[in-house]
Amino acid sequence: MDELIPEDIDSNVENKSPLDSIIESYQPNVDGEKIIAELRPGDYDNFIKVLQILNKEKDDDLISIKESTVTKGNSDCVIQADMSPVLKDKNGEPVSLDIINPKKYIKLLEQFRSQDNIFIIDDDDNSRFILTNGEVKLFLPKSDNILEQDVESFDIDNGETVCEKQIDKDTRKIIKNLAKDQDYLDYLIQDGELKAIYIPDTAVYTFSEYKTEEKAQNLDETNADLALRSSNFLPVESENYSLYIVKNGDDYISLTDCAAGGKIAIRVSESLEIATGGNLIF
What is the pTM of this model? Predict the structure, then answer.
């Protein structure tokens, strides 16, 4: 081994690893008070994935993050995400951030690919935020004239739970693939339990715990005790999902809780349409 190290090499160089310059992490040269958040690469990826889902569900002019929480949706579906585990300042306090023209800026926000942390800097003098990892410095404009989004969640205070279901990512993948070209699918409820899902004119997926149950084996959209139509089935990628179906008066609402990247808590609330009583016509 000694023969591999020339004697005239400088001792300072001798003790350095070839990876030292790569391992050294980036820190922006700005006043620390202007840094409103610092995200690790994995946390940043999950942050972007949530923004992508929010923009996909309703393409409009603003995603408004207030105290690290964002609520977005329409009359049929509301998505609420608590980003505080990943989006916080150096004191652990929540962050507010408006993303105007998300169709444009989310595409730009996707361009951070290095292993360095991503910093969000408040550049108030130029009425903008700066997102940077040292390699890319992206300008996210502010606006003083943006109206705060007014999104109301569904009222379930007096609701009655009809059924609940735990779904894992592999089951979700199968159902999403079966329903790839469909606008909706139906939850098939029998004996007070969600036993299967009907994909129109394509398939019935029976949850594994019911596949040997004789009554459930014959379950389809024509004989379910209750069939409820969903147009927003598990839109967020996660390891596991807790799905609840609640009846509030004459209305049925599904509530799905999951965690993007295991950190960002997300609830998807959807108003379901009653689809019970259909008959096959050939």
Answer: 0.80
Total residue length of the chain: 282
Q: Mention the CATH class of domain 32-141.
A: alpha beta
Compute the half-sphere exposure of residue 89: CA atoms within 13 Å on the CB side of its CA: 14
Query: Both ends of the chain: CA-CA distance in Å?
Result: 81
Distances (CA, A) of 102 to 56, 91, 116, 240: 10, 28, 24, 28
User: What would the two tokens of residue 249 be?
Assistant: 């008066």
Phi–psi pair at 184, nearest 5 degrees: -160, 170
Q: Over the stretch 125-171, which tens digit does the pLDDT of each residue have? A: 999 999 999 999 999 998 765 555 555 667 777 889 999 999 999 99
Tokens of 247: 């009846």
Tokens of 57: 């569900």
Alpha-carbon distances, residue 132 vs 30, 37, 203, 207, 253 (angstroms): 12, 11, 47, 45, 41
Q: Tokens for 223, please give them.
A: 């004989």
Measured between alpha carbons, how far is 139 from 96 in angstroms, rounded to an integer? Answer: 16
Residues near 164 by beta carbon (within 8 Å), at least 6 away in sequence: 194, 242, 243, 244, 245
Are the C-beta atoms of residues 274 and 227 closer than 8 Å to each other?
A: yes
Residue type, 155: D
Determine the Cα–Cα distance for residues 60 and 74; give it in Å rounded to an integer: 11
Q: 205-262, pLDDT tens digit by residue?
A: 999 999 999 999 999 999 999 999 999 999 988 999 999 999 999 999 999 999 988 8
